[in-house]
Amino acid sequence: MVVPLLYSVVAAMVIPLALLVAAAARADVEGHRSPLRGRFSGWLGDTSFAFYLLHILVLYGASNMSPNGFGVAAALAVMIGAYLVTLGLASLLHIGVERPMMRRFAKARKPAAAPRPAAAATASPALEPTPIATGDGTRVT
């Protein structure tokens, strides 16, 4: 089967990238040291949605700075500047809009349940009481 060149490059990277993502996720779950666990990486993750929302607006504005285009050095400087401007605006948007909205409208998460003792984990499920749903959506056992 013949695959177009761009698809063949992507297909060759699927397995290595999947292994990289799996290794990073495992390291995170197990609590190993990783460059992805730092404060800077966390801040980038927090601001990523705002960055996604703003990047096209900043790039569009940067592309309109010169109707005739840029030279290589000027284009590189404009790209770096656009990245930094987008990152700054995304941080402001995250702090000024996203965080307050999450505080106001997001539901609090329930704390994780404590692990069950080994004896209870091996007990037959038939011996446990069956929860009964009430009309208001709460569960009573």
Folded structure, characterized:
The protein has 141 residues and is mainly alpha-helical. Helices cover 63% and strands 3% of the residues. Strands 1-2 form a two-stranded antiparallel ribbon. 4% of the residues are buried.
Short recap of the structure:
With 141 residues, this protein is an all-alpha fold. It is 63% helix and 3% strand. The chain has a two-stranded antiparallel sheet with strand order 1-2.
Summarize the topology.
Elements: H1 5-30, H2 39-63, H3 72-105, H4 118-121, E1 132-133, E2 139-140
Antiparallel strand pairs: 1-2
Keywords:
141 residues, mainly alpha, two-stranded antiparallel sheet, 2 strands, 3% strand
